[in-house]
Amino acid sequence: MTSEKTLADAGIGRLGLCSGCSYFPDYLNSRRCKPGDACIRAHSGRQIDRFLRANPELAANYLGDIFWERRAIATRYAPVDLIFALKSDTDEVVRRVVAMRLPVDQLISMIHDPDREVRLSVAARLPEAQLIQLINDPDYLIRATIARRLPHGQLAKLIKDSEREVRKVVASRLPPFALHMLAKDPEPEVRAIVAERALPGLAIALLQDEEWWVRLAAVGNAPLDSLPPLTNDPETEVRDAALARLAERNTA
Question: Where in the numbering of this chain does the LRV FeS4 cluster domain appear (predicted)?
């Protein structure tokens, strides 16, 4: 009775990338790699990933590889304590992986990384007490991420941010008693968010806003006795909203 041939005996892998590979033929025969599908020597991210997913214990061997994609994929699978040095890798894709895997107490040294995606990952994971250090980041997406995570008591530091999208986030998170700080924002989209969340006193003031959708948002929070003038508003939607709220009082 003859034994079944191994894949290598059958001629698979004798040519191409398998030739000269230190894992050939053992890994091929044990199906821990597959030519054209799972191969550490390939210049294909998918093949490299499949190989290291099946053999994560080998990832550390490729953290210093000359090919950036091989380093980046190895960084996903290597033990965390081995990737610290890659915080300053020359390739931003490698650093992005590092920023997603490092312990949060090790992220502070990456807040000035030149790559926006790296800083976004840092901003999303940085301990709350350290978020303030990114408050002046040149990229508004970073500042908006910070605005979503800052403690309420520190949000006022962003009310004068130059970017509307950042101030919109601030308006959506400020405690209602502090919304007056954005009630005169130059952007109506910001004022509309303020109006949607305003306490009654501030809502009354916003009923006079020059933009109709800000007035519309304020109708929902303003006291009923302040709404009759809005039944003559030049905008139909504002008039209808005011009339609907007044009708609720009459049917209560």
Answer: 18-60
Could you name the CATH architecture of 178-252? Alpha Horseshoe (1.25)
For 208-242, the pLDDT digits (tens) are: 999 999 999 999 999 999 999 999 999 999 999 99
pLDDT above 90 (res 15)? no
- Count of Cβ atoms closer than 10 Å to residue 37 Cβ: 12
What letters, b where the CB count within 10 A reaches 16 and e where it falls short, cover 51-75?
bbeebeebbeebbeeebebbbbbbb
Q: What pLDDT is stored for residue 17 in this prediction?
A: 86
Question: In which residue ranges of the chain is CATH 1.25.10 found?
Answer: 178-252
Q: Would residue 11 be called left, alpha or beta, if left means φ above 0 and alpha means ψ between -120 and 50 degrees?
A: left
Amino acid, res. 12: I
Residue 214 CB partners (closer than 8 Å, separation 6+) = 188, 191, 192, 195, 206
